[in-house]
């Protein structure tokens, strides 16, 4: 038996191209369905975890999915804005802690999230370097943002202009980095956080009297890494809030009419949550309240349906591959007929000849299975972040 | 010692019938079997080895009545008592020279592979001057070298009988003589009975006795 | 809904330059109860009510007027890490829109009487001291000069403390009762000191006494003069015009005016009267002592 295994090993090693193809086929047959499944489950767990950690979301009536994705993952599509007065209204109901989010702007490709300090306590985010934003115009960076653009406390990032020809004439804001958050393994690692008021300044709702005089060319001010320079090549002028001009910064109009893209509502208990949802469902207002975990469950339902189709396709593909692998095996047995005959003549029993052939299949299959499981394990650990980076 | 009595063998779907009324080959004898193609030389060797069994009559090889043994016993007998040398050498091209020599030990549980066997394999290889090629793949050897590997493989389990089917059929004249020398010398040194089928008169002359198929029938 | 974001895996050395020594993440709730205030009267009320349980901090450094304070990031971080942030409200903290504070922990102590806020009329922008230009536009904010409003502010503080630290609620209530008694006494003293001045034309060097005037029905007009800075001739002319229609004999000052001003006032038969607004910590004594000193000076004037 050991001899057969040895011969099988020598055989598969000698015919390594054929072996590689067979192992690859078996790996694919096992890995494809398993990997898809693991990836979906892991991503689903990530999605649901974030959604479940976010009890309620209030936003403008529209797609609950868009509201949830934007508020949880800060995607590029921002939903229609609510007036800030809704945050106060929600607060005065006394049923939930409202955390406003304003996610319209970006800096160097990363979302700028305008919010309140409650957000950090709510998400359990800690500052690892520097401090929390304190003054208008300051920001704190998600850990990955800081790592990727190589910026830290005391440096600055400049918000991207919404379009090259910004008819509103709102200049980008040069924001001082007050601190960097610790890694949280969540979309918060990939965001830039500012006070809601700072986000409003970016949106042109507030300004300082000296801002135009302060506006200057971006070149020479940015950090000298190629990413920043490329990303901000179009920036000619920007606003900056400094200790000298901060006192002159003020907001025009009624703050209650200023925009927020969503409000995270954190009710203290289930009862408050139910009452709050009831109020929104009864009202004929323009706002909607959604339970992110319900929205995500619905999305996952769709994903799982798609998964069923994908798996069916993969099974068909797998059977095809299996048939091909079988054919390759069968053909190689025919080619080896004479060799097996010689073995019989020398004195090998039919059983040991069979075992020899089986051993080859075992060696090839074992390699294929091992590889498939290795790939699945890799998918499990590295897949979901990649999926999130690509799709969200 | 090989003793054949009243042997009759016919192939299925063939008119050919091999009949041998009586034949005896003594221990340590070196016998060449000659005869035209299709006269049943290889069939006779297969009957000696127990690869085929006669329809009638008996074949007794090395004191064993091969013709009436069950299959498993014949296989065990073959692997332990008979060394086979084929015209096409029948080496496995995915194994090294050394592993090819050890092949019977990989194939049958009747043989036990241990260090003594490996040492013996090396010494056999030294005898036939291929000791420096043990690690090589057999596909890279010359025809003469390949036949020497086949010879080592046949002799390694210390068989009492070496059966060679056209052992020089694929060799050029110079190799032919060297291989025949090796075959004769080593069979004798191993104390085995040697029966070789050949159609080459020059080769046949070198054996102790020459059996003509025509005379046997 | 989905968009492909190109993720660059190029690792860039995250060399953090220019790190300032700053307090790291503020998180309220750990350690001793902390309250941060934005002026001295609030500090005093909070200390009285907190009674040693609550550590009260007033992060403004120096002896400037907290009404014109521009807190820096460190001061804001101290506020962010506090359990309670007490503000005066009534537009007192003009910087509040320029900083990031946990709004749920920000307590506007004057929120219970926004209907009693007084508007400032006749806006003048002027220069004084190292703080540069400032204006007295909008709502009057020296609410604590009215002991009745001060008591309401104290109540709001006690309520906030009790809400945050319910275990100490009864102690806070007792402290509030004691403080309120002091404020009532102060109210009576002010009332008796100012009875004689009711309806009498008075002047103020700064428009900061609106709530005082309102409570005790003072006929008060304000200019915006600095004690250490001689007003222009134009200002003196306007002053004479003002006196013509508002014949005041007393002018209330936040601090002792320079001798030159005193002399010229004497020529116009106007005498200075010191009434410390106590926005910042007094050099000695406390809010009550400072107000009592004000009462004492008023009493001396009323006797004349």
Structure description:
The complex is a heterotrimer of chains A (392), B (217) and C (304). Chain A is built from 13 helices and 15 strands. Chain A is of the alpha+beta class and 392 residues long. In chain A, the strands form three sheets. In chain A, strands 1, 3, 4, 5, 6, 7, 8, 9, 11, 14 and 15 form an eleven-stranded mixed β-sheet that branches. In chain A, strands 2-13 form a two-stranded antiparallel ribbon. Chain B has helices spanning 41-49, 71-81, 97-101, 103-107, 115-127, 143-155, 173-189, 201-204, 213-216, and strands spanning 2-10, 17-25, 30-34, 56-61, 64-65, 82-85, 161-165, 193-197, 209-212. In chain B, the strands form two sheets. A five-stranded parallel β-sheet of chain B has the order 6-7-8-3-9, sandwiched between helices. Chain C is α/β, with parallel strands linked by helices and 304 residues long. Chain C folds into two domains: 34-123 and 144-182, Nitrogenase molybdenum iron protein domain (Rossmann fold, 3-Layer(aba) Sandwich), CATH 3.40.50.1980; 189-303, Nitrogenase molybdenum iron protein domain (Rossmann fold). In chain C, helix 7 links the parallel strand 9 (250-253) and strand 10 (271-274). Chain C is globular.
């Amino acid at each position: 038996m050991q001899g057969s295994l040895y011969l099988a090993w020598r055989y598969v090693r000698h015919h390594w191209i054929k072996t590689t193809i067979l192992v690859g086929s078996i790996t694919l047959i096992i890995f494809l369905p398993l990997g898809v499944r693991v990836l979906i489950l892991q991503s689903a767990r990530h999605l649901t975890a974030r959604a479940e950690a976010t009890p309620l979301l209030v936003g403008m009536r529209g797609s609950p999915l868009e509201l949830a994705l934007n508020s949880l993952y800060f995607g590029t599509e921002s939903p229609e804005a609510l007036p800030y007065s809704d945050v106060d209204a929600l607060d005065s109901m006394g049923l939930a802690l409202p955390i406003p989010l304003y996610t319209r702007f970006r800096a160097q490709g990363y979302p700028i999230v305008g919010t309140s300090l409650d957000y950090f306590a709510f998400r359990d985010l800690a500052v690892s370097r520097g401090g929390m934003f304190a003054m208008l115009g300051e920001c704190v960076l998600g850990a990955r943002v800081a790592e990727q653009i190589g910026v830290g406390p005391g440096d600055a990032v400049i918000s991207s202009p919404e379009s090259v020809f910004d008819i509103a004439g709102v200049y980008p804001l040069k924001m001082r980095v007050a601190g960097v958050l610790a890694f949280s393994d969540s979309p918060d690692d990939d965001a830039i956080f500012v006070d809601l008021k700072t986000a409003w300044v970016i949106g042109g709702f507030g300004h300082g009297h000296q801002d135009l005089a302060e506006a200057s060319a971006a070149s020479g001010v940015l950090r000298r890494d190629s990413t920043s320079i490329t990303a901000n090549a179009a920036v000619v002028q920007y606003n900056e809030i400094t200790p000298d001009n901060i006192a002159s910064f003020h907001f025009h109009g009624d703050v209650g009419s200023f925009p927020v893209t969503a409000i995270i509502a954190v009710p203290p208990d289930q009862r408050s949550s139910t009452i709050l949802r009831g109020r929104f469902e009864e009202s004929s207002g323009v706002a909607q309240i959604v339970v992110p975990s319900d929205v995500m469950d619905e999305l996952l339902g769709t994903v799982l349906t798609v998964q069923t189709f994908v798996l069916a396709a993969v099974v068909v593909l797998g059977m095809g591959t299996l048939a091909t692998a079988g054919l390759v095996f069968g053909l190689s047995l025919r080619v080896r007929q004479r060799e097996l005959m010689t073995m019989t003549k020398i004195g090998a029993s039919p059983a040991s000849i069979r075992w020899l052939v089986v051993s080859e299949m075992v060696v090839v299959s074992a390699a294929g299975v091992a590889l498939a499981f290795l790939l699945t394990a890799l998918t499990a650990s590295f897949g979901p972040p990649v999926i999130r980076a690509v799709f969200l | 010692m090989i003793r054949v009595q009243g042997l009759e063998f016919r192939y299925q779907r063939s008119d050919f019938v091999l009949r041998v009324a009586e034949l005896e080959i003594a221990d340590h004898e070196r016998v060449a079997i000659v005869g035209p193609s299709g006269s049943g030389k290889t069939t006779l060797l297969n009957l000696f080895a127990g690869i085929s069994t006669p329809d009638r009559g008996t074949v007794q090889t090395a004191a064993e009545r091969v013709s009436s043994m069950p299959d498993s016993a014949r296989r065990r007998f073959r692997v332990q008592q008979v060394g086979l040398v084929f015209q096409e050498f029948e080496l496995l091209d995915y194994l090294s020279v050394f592993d090819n020599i050890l092949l019977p030990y990989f194939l049958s549980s009747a043989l036990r592979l241990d260090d003594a066997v490996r040492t013996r394999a090396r010494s056999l290889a030294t005898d036939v001057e291929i000791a420096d090629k043990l690690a090589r793949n057999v596909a890279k050897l010359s025809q003469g070298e390949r036949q020497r590997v086949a010879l080592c493989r046949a002799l390694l389990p210390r068989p009492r009988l070496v059966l060679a089917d056209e052992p020089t059929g694929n060799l050029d004249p110079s190799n032919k003589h060297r291989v025949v020398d090796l075959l004769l010398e080593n069979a004798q040194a191993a104390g085995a009975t040697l029966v070789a089928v050949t159609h080459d008169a020059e080769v046949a002359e070198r054996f102790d006795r020459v059996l003509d198929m025509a005379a046997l029938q | 809904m989905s968009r492909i974001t190109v993720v660059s895996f190029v690792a860039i050395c995250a060399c953090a330059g220019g790190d300032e020594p700053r307090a790291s993440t503020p998180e309220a709730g750990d350690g001793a109860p902390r309250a941060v205030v934005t002026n001295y009267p609030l500090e005093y009320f909070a200390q009285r009510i907190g009674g040693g349980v609550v550590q009260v901090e007033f992060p403004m450094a120096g002896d400037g007027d907290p009404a014109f304070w521009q807190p820096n990031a460190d001061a804001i971080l101290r506020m962010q890490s506090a359990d309670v942030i007490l503000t005066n409200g009534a537009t007192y903290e003009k910087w509040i829109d320029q900083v990031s504070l946990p709004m749920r922990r920000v307590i506007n102590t004057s929120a219970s009487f926004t209907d009693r806020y007084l508007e400032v009329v006749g806006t003048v922008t002027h220069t004084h001291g190292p703080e540069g230009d400032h204006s007295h536009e909008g709502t009057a904010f020296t609410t604590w000069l009215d002991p009745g409003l001060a008591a309401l502010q104290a109540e709001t503080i006690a309520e906030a403390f009790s809400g945050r630290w319910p275990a100490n609620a009864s102690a806070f209530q007792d402290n509030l009762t004691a403080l309120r008694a002091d404020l009532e006494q102060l109210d009576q003293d002010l009332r008796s000191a100012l009875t004689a001045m009711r309806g009498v034309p008075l002047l103020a060097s700064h428009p900061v006494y609106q709530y005082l005037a309102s409570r005790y029905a003072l006929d008060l007009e304000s200019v915006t003069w600095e004690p250490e800075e001689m007003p222009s001739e134009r200002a003196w002319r306007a002053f004479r015009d003002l006196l013509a229609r508002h014949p005041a004999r007393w002018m209330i000052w936040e601090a002792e005016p320079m001798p030159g001003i005193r002399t010229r006032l004497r020529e116009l038969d106007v005498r200075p009267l010191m009434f410390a607004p106590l926005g910042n910590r007094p050099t000695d004594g406390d809010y009550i002592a400072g107000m009592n000193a004000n009462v004492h000076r008023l009493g001396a004037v009323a006797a004349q």
